[in-house]
Amino acid sequence: MSIENPIFRTEDLCAYYGDFMAIKHVTMSIPEKKVTAFMGPSGCGKTTILRCLNRLHELTPGAWYSGKIFLRDQDILEMDPILVRRKVGMVFQKPNPFPTMTIYDNVLAGYKLLGIRLKKEEADRICEEALRKAALWDEVKDILHRRGTFLSGGQQQRLCIARALAVNPEVLLMDEPTSALDPKATLQIENLIVDLKNTVTIIIVTHNMPQAGRVSDYSAFFYLGELVEFGPTAEMFTNPKDPRTEEYLTGKFS
Amino acid sequence: MNDKKLSLPSKIWDDVFRYLAFGSGLVVILLIVASLITLIIQSWPAIKHYGLSFIWSTDWDPLAEKYGALPFIVGTLLTSFLALIIATPFALAGAIFLGELAPKKIAEPISFIMELLAGIPSVIYGLWALFFLVPIIRAFQMKIGAPPYGLGIFTASLVLAIMILPYALSVARDVIKLCPNDLKEAAYGLGATRWETIRGVILPYAKSGIVAGIVLALGRALGETMAVTMVIGNSSTLPSSIWDLGNTMASVIANEFNEAQGLHLAVLVEIGLLLFIITVIVNLIARIFIIKTRV
């Protein structure tokens, strides 16, 4: 299936942990300003490929890749990883705000850690904007200078989303962002994802098929490190082409 | 079901264990209180005779029975803090290297050697310093025009710094290792470099633990006796620079305890009492700091 003007394109991408090949010859294109879900059973490599897209994969000792990953027209495997990660933000499975920082500093961590100095008004503006985008502003605007670890799990995760959005990334990677949250917080994050797709391309790894159905425009199904099927979510859910996708969607294995 | 076969483990052993554990905890407290009482009783003649002015008097003349503890208090604090200032940057850099940067294959053997370093008897550090450090420092003192003793406050500080380094370093390394991986990945994910992640995330996370390690090291430096006694020069006048000869509270006790009698002996015990109090105060200050900065 072909995608017009993809933001990400992989060519024969393989990812390894030492001798183990976790991603096998994946060639795919990811559309801009859409939500794409990566699905598949545990150990299928969906998180690994997500971590390839902002070059976090290589931080694991012994991990390496072959093939190409294009962000627009640039091969990110040949770019400075720092630059890649500025353009491709990440939200993790477990909410991980920096425990030593206030809410305000957490949102601005992408600037503070890198030693980028901002004027007070500009910092305030970026902070408010990011928190509003993450639908957290109203809840924390009066406690910006308290530590982020006092927040609830769902609020912490939205804080992490605000932190990632504050540096204006082109793509937001989300690795099972709701798996540690209760149903109400999960719903808030899902609504947020739908709201955000006008401003940023989102790729979300999820275990939860109804969730993929609710939030994503496109879906990729991985199995044992291979990309089995990729297409519009509605199409894949109603009419899967590959028998393995169908078996997974109907709950024959998980 | 066979009810007769069902026998509960005896509750007695539970109680025995609890009282044993409680007793052991109590013994620790009793030991501290007992040594404090002993020190006070033994030093009572000196406390009665010289009063509080003992702490800030600088006289030290056993023949005239004039005693003041200030040169030794200054000697102890000066050598310990100087040692800390020298050792801390190395401890921090080493801990970052061993805890975060070095691959396991390198970090493990180095950590092992470092722990051996902590086990070397103090007298051996003293000997090594006498034969190796003292000539070097003497040459350096001649170059800069300081009195070329070779021995003295600075030499003692240097030996102390080397001795406490493994303690500060290994505690700091352990807390740096404790920093959760997801926090580091969050920083890397924002485009931080390794150094920016260490400075902005790992060190703030490990701060209270690092301070705890430094205080542990300071506690050891304050009380260290043998190596210091061998290189500090055994002078009982108030030091006016770090190149002077001096004495610490511990080293004056070690130097004079053998010949001391009567009031002189009580005075030395009182210095021991003061050392005890200073150590407790330093630990309390550090404890408060650790609690205040805890994540």
Report on the architecture of this protein.
The complex is a heterodimer of chains A (254) and B (295). With 254 residues, chain A is of the alpha/beta class. Chain A has 11 helices and 10 strands. A 6-stranded mixed sheet of chain A has the order 6-7-8-3-9-10, sandwiched between helices. Chain B has 295 residues and is mainly α. In chain B, helix 2 (70-101) runs parallel beside helix 5 (153-178). The radius of gyration of chain B is 24 Å and the shape is globular. The A-B interface holds A 54, 56, 59, 61, 82-83, 85-86, 89-90, 92, 94, 96, 98-101, 109-110, 112-115, 149, 160, 163-164, 167 and B 103, 180, 182-183, 185-193, 196-197, 200-201, 204-205, 207, 295.
The helix-and-strand class of chain B reads mainly alpha
- CATH topology descriptor of chain B: MetI-like fold
Rounded mean pLDDT of chain B is 90
Query: How is the quaternary structure best described?
Result: heterodimer
CATH architecture identity of chain B: Orthogonal Bundle
Q: What count of helical segments of chain B does DSSP give? A: 10
Overall number of domains of chain A: 1
Q: What is the fourth-level CATH superfamily of chain A?
A: P-loop containing nucleotide triphosphate hydrolases
Large-scale geometry of chain A: globular
Q: Which blocks of ≥5 consecutive residues of chain A have pLDDT under 50?
A: none
Shape of chain B: globular
Beta-strand proportion of chain B:
under 5%
Mean pLDDT of chain A: 92
Radius of gyration of chain B: 24 Å
List keywords for this structure.
A: 254 residues; alpha/beta; six-stranded mixed sheet; 35% helix; B: 295 residues; mainly alpha; MetI-like fold; two-stranded antiparallel ribbon; 10 helices; ATP-binding (chain A); transport (chain A); ATP hydrolysis activity (chain A)
Fold blueprint:
The complex is a heterodimer of chains A (254) and B (295).
Chain A: E1 8-17, E2 20-30, E3 35-39, H1 46-53, E4 63-71, E5 74-75, H2 81-87, E6 88-91, H3 103-107, H4 109-112, H5 120-133, H6 137-140, H7 153-165, E7 171-175, H8 183-196, E8 201-205, H9 209-215, E9 218-223, E10 226-232, H10 233-238, H11 243-249
Parallel strand pairs in A: 3-8, 3-9, 6-7, 7-8
Antiparallel strand pairs in A: 1-2, 1-4, 4-5, 9-10
Chain B: H1 11-50, E1 60-61, E2 66-67, H2 70-101, H3 104-119, H4 122-144, H5 153-178, H6 181-189, H7 194-223, H8 226-231, H9 249-256, H10 262-293
Antiparallel strand pairs in B: 1-2
Helix pairs in contact in B: 1-10, 2-5, 2-7, 3-5, 5-7, 6-7, 7-10, 9-10
